[in-house]
Amino acid sequence: MSTTSAPAPLTDQPLRGLAFIIGATMLFAYSDTSGKLLVSEYNVPLVMAVRYITHALLMLAIVAPFHGRAMVHATRTGLVLVRGGCLAVASVLMGFALQRMPVAEATAIVYLAPVLVILLSGPLLNEKVGSGAWVAAALGFAGVLLIARPGGGLDPWGIAFALGNVVLAVAYNLLSRVLARTEHTITMLFYTALVGSILFGLMLPWTLYGVPPTVLQIFLFLGLGVSAGLGHYLFTQSYRYAPAAILAPMNYLHLGWAALFGWLVFGHAPDAIALGGIALVAAGGVVSATMARRRPARAREEAAAAPEESV
User: Fold this and answer.
1) What pLDDT, in 10s, does the model give residues 60-99?
2) Within a domain: residue 240?
3) What is the pLDDT of residues 23-43, one digit of tens each?
4) Interval 128-157 mean pLDDT
5) Contact by Cβ (8 Å): 135, 269
6) For residues 117 and 170, is the Cβ–Cβ distance under 8 A?
7) What mean pLDDT do residues 164-189 have?
C-alpha cells in the first residue's frame, strides 16, 4: 500500500468543484443547526470537543487503515496546523454566536467572508478575478445585507463573535487553496480534526459538566462530528477543481440551507425582506455556475486563436 504518494494535482473542473461546495454547505448548515440545539443545553467548548474528537476517531478507525502514513504526512506542516487552528477557533466563535442568534442570521454575517476571499484571491493567490466573480460576490453581499439588515434586533455580542468567525474563515479559505497544491485532502482533514481535538480536549477538565445527554442528544453529538468531517472533506476537495474566486460565491448557499433548517427545527421563518436576500444569494450562485461553464470553453477558444510560437 502506497503511503506517501503525491497529492492529486489541481485541475480545471469547476463544475465538480461547485458540486462539492454545494454538498459541503448543506452539511455545514446541518452542523450549525445541530450545534445550536446542543449549545442551548451544554457549554460551547464541550460541544466542540465532542465534535472534533468524534471526527478524529472516525478518521483513525475508517480512513487510517486505507491511507496509512499518507494521512499524517504533510509537506508544509506548519501551514496545515495553522489552517486547522483557524477552523477550531472559528468553530468556537460560531458556537458562541449561535447561542445568541438564530441560525440564518448568524450564518448571514459569517458569509461576509466569501466577499473578502474574492477580494484577496487576486493579490494573495495570483488568481484571475473576472467580472462574473465580482457580480456574483456583489449579489451575495447585497443578499447578506438584506438578511442581516440594521434594526433587526440582533445581539451585539453575537454579531461580534460572528465577525471574529469571518476573519478566521477568510484565512481558512485562502489556506485551503494554497495547500491544495501540495497536501492530500485526507491529510488536511486529519490535522483539522487533530488540532481541534487537542485544543478542546485540553479544556475538558473545566468544561465537562451538564446534565446527562438523552438518546437524541447523543445522536446529535455524533452527527455533529460526522457532518462536520464530511463537510470539510468536500470543502477541501472542491479547491482541487476550481479557483477560490469561483467557489467563494457558492458558499452563500449555506445561507439558504441555514434558513431552511432554522425554519424546520426552530420555527424561525425568514421574513419577506430576508427571503429577497436569499434570492439574491441564489442569483449569485447562478452567475458563478454560468461563469464556471464558460471558462473552459473560452480558454480553449483563446488557445486556438493564439499565434504559434516560432521554434
Assistant:
1) 888 888 877 888 888 999 999 999 999 999 999 999 999 9
2) yes
3) 998 998 898 899 899 998 899
4) 75
5) no
6) yes
7) 88
| Residue span of the structural domain in which 154 resides | 14-294
Grid cell, residue 205, equals: 477538565
130 lies in some domain: yes
Question: Do the domain assignments include residue 6?
Answer: no
pLDDT of residue 232: 77
What CA–CA distance (Å, rounded) separates 284 from 132? 9
How many C-beta atoms lie closer than 10 Å to residue 206's C-beta?
10
- Whether residue 302 is contained in a domain is answered as no
pLDDT above 50 (res 304): no
Mean pLDDT computed over 281-292: 68
Q: Residue type at 14?
A: P
Residue type, 28: F
Which of the four pLDDT bands, split at 50, 70 and 90, describes residue 306?
A: very low
- Concatenating the DSSP letter of every residue in the chain gives --SSPPPPPP---HHHHHHHHHHHHHHHHHHHHHHHHHHTTS-HHHHHHHHHHHHHHHIIIIIHHHHGGGGT--SSHHHHHHHHHHHHHHHHHHHHHHHHS-HHHHHHHHTTHHHHHHHHHHHHH-----HHHHHHHHHHHHHHHHHT-TTS---HHHHHHHHHHHHHHHHHHHHHHHHTTTS-HHHHHHHHHHHHHHHHHTTHHHH--SSPPPHHHHHHHHHHHHHHHHHHHHHHHHTTTS-HHHHHHHTTHHHHHHHHHHHHHH-----HHHHHHHHHHHHHHHHHHHHHHHHHHHHHHHHHHSPPPP-
Domain count, the chain: 1
Average pLDDT, whole number, for the chain?
80
Question: How many angstroms separate the CA atoms of 40 and 38, rounded?
Answer: 5
